[in-house]
Amino acid sequence: METPASLRWARGRAHLVLAWEAGWTALLPLLGLALLFVALAWTGLLSVLPGWAHLAALILFAAVGLGLAWTRLRHWRWPDSATVDRRIETASGLAHRPLTTLQDEPAGGDAVTFSLWQVHRARVLASLTQLRTGLPARGAYEVDPFGLRALVVSAVIVGFFAAGPDRAERLRAAFLPRFETASTVPPSMDVWATPPAYTNLPPLALSRLPEGEAVALPGGTQLSVQLSGYETKAPPDFSAPGIAATKLTRQSDGVWHGDATLPVPPEAQEGALTLLNRAWPIRVLPDAVPKIAFRERPGPTPRQSLRLPWGGEDDYGIESVRAEIRLSERKGEPFSLTLAAPARKAASGAPLHDLTDHPWAGLPVSITLIARDGRGQEGRSEPELLILPAREFTHPVAKAIIDLRRALTDEPDSAPEVARALEKLAIRPQAFSHDTLVFLGLMSARARLILADPSEDQAPVVRTLWDLALRLEEGDLSVLERDLREAQQAVQDGLEQDLTDPEMQQRLDAMQQALDRYMQALTRRAIENSQRADKPRRPRDPNARTVTSRDIQQMMDKARELARQGQKEQAQALLDQLRELMEQLANAEPELAEGDESEMGEDDGDPTSQALQNLQDLARQQRSLMDRGLQQNRQRGQKGQPGQQGQQGEPQPGDGDMAGEQESLRRRLGEIMRQLGEANGGMPQGLGRAEQAMRDALSRLQQGQQGGAAGAQQQALDQLRDAMRGLADQQRQQAGEGQGQGQGRQRAGQRPGQQTTTGQNRDPLGRDRGDQQPGNGLGNDDRVRIPEDSAVERARTIFDDLRRRAADPTRPTLEREYIDRLLRGF
């Protein structure tokens, strides 16, 4: 009789269950041993063992594994049929062992007996339904009654997370014991070459260069050598061109260090830096003496200032330039003039120096230029012989004072005679128009000469006599001109010294004030000359180009803006141009042309011109207020208070003063708007928006929100600039219409005393304007390019936006620190 399929399927499952139960109990110790090895490998315990211990551990694991495999697997057998049937009968709960009955055969009998047996088997097969084999028995308790398997599993989990992404690498290393010794590991070399600071060259890592690559180093370079992992008792050494073998000093176990400096050779020197078995080809460069010479012959300007055009170069940069002046025909200690401190490889300049008050003025001298580099080497130019510029005095009393001053300088012992001569001048006040200041100055100088000790320096008296002579010759103009030159020199020194923005703006403000006073004095002199009856009138040159105060103010404003943006070279060039222009204006004969008398009052009181000047002054004060607010806000943020004003809105000390200043500026803008409305019947729309922006800034300052006030203040500045452009365009159109009608009127906003230069397409200095843009008022020379207005405007917009972001306490700290680093050079 055929066996049913359900019975065959049950027997197959029973075979697998019984085989798993026998194999699981046999393989459990082997699995635990393998997991223990993986846990030790992932935690790195095997890799840190010495090579011999690691190998012994591997051998131990292998021996234990083989032993367990032999003892546990050699008795394993595949289950037989009787065992399988018995498992099915037990799991299915069959009584009387029916599966065994199916295997039995009758011992004998006739056909009836055989038929009955077949019927019995059929009944047994029919009763075999829902045969089961049961789940495999775990049997782990019999093999591991102490539960050590849980500890092994926990160790594997810990090792899994400890190894991280290095699991495969750690498992591989667990099978490879390391037997390397310290002597087989080559030492690591770090060789650095640090050039001298004055070369502005970065340090160079020689040890990271490809082997055999040559490198050029300036003389004076410091070599720093460090060895790590060099386990010897004898100190190693290294050598370089011009440096003998230098021993390294021991810093710690296996670490050696040494330093040496390459000497400065007279000419390029080839060689190699050698250390152990390595060599780096080196070419040591010399440090040449700086070169300097006069670009043109030095000489006086129309105002008798000494102009010294120079040019120089050095292989690593000129540190300073000065001019040494000596007397040519007699002995005397030389004196020096500091010309520049460019700190560039190639530089040039043409500074002006007023030496008319020097005792050597009018005497033959020799001038030598001296350039000094960072190493202290000095290069000299060929000396130039000339007569030191001297001022010519026409006033009789001034000439007498200058003669007495020269006598006092040449012979200090003649002080009593000079004092008596000063007294004779003072008792005749009609000779100097009864000028009280001149009288007091003469008597003060006389008293100091009489009462002074013979060994005392007479320099203060000599300076007083010079100032008195200038006052008699030119009035207050000479003193104001001297103050302007001193202010200009202070600004130029500040550009060379890299002063902070507030300090630089303070010096520019002082120069602005000196320039305003000087221009006012020029205007007064022009009016006086125009009113002199004995002064012949001459017609205006139709090709003359007028230099207005607005042109000068534009130059000053652009120089201020360039200094704020950190473009110091362009600012220096623009200030040089401004200084030359002032020389030209001071030397010109200021007067009014025919037909100007009737227009003086009208032009001088032109409301549009006055509004432009007032708006420029207002914009400067608004920007100054904004800069102070941003600086104060940044200082608060650095002290750990970045959120007080922006988040809490609590006014801080000093906010009330700024709010008061803002309100004063707003009221002043309202007065300008009223004056423009009455005079022109209208005003630029930008002024209304500027006034509203000032109101917003005032409100935020009163609430202590300086970060928000900066944005409103910048908006007010933008609107003021737009309004000033509109007014300037309106003036130019009106001036063009007046010239087209042939009326010969002055340009809008022109003041008496403004100078003209003949020739078309010329700048205020009479030079060819070239590719100068119309309305720019400035030109570019061949050495330094001055940015156009559009470039300056874009740079100013970016700069102001960065400053607003740096002062915004709501921005991330990382962003504000990055912006501070960007602004640090400005």
Description:
By secondary structure, the protein is of the alpha+beta class. Helices cover 52% and strands 14% of the residues. The chain has 24 helices and 22 strands. The strands form five sheets. Strands 11, 14, 15, 16, 18, 19 and 20 form a seven-stranded antiparallel beta sheet that branches. The protein has a five-stranded antiparallel beta sheet with strand order 2-1-4-8-7, with no helix packed on it. Strands 3-10-9-5-6 form a five-stranded mixed beta sheet, with no helix packed on it. A hairpin with a 7-residue loop joins strand 14 and strand 15. The longest helix is centred in the first third of the chain and has 39 residues. The radius of gyration is 50 Å and the shape is elongated. The termini are far apart. About 8% of the residues have low confidence.
Can I get a quick summary?
The chain has 826 residues and is α+β, with helices and mostly antiparallel strands.
Round the mean pLDDT to the nearest integer and report it.
76
- For the record, give the distance between the C-alpha atoms at the N and C termini, rounded to a whole number: 107 Å
Rg, nearest Å: 50 Å
Question: What structural class results from the helix and strand content?
Answer: alpha+beta
Shape: elongated
User: Biggest sheet, open or closed, and with what strands and sense?
Assistant: 7 strands, antiparallel
| Low-pLDDT sequence parts | 591-604, 641-649, 738-784
Task: State the helical fraction.
Answer: 40-55%
**Topology, number of strands:** 22
Strand content: 5-15%
User: What's the tally of helices?
Assistant: 24
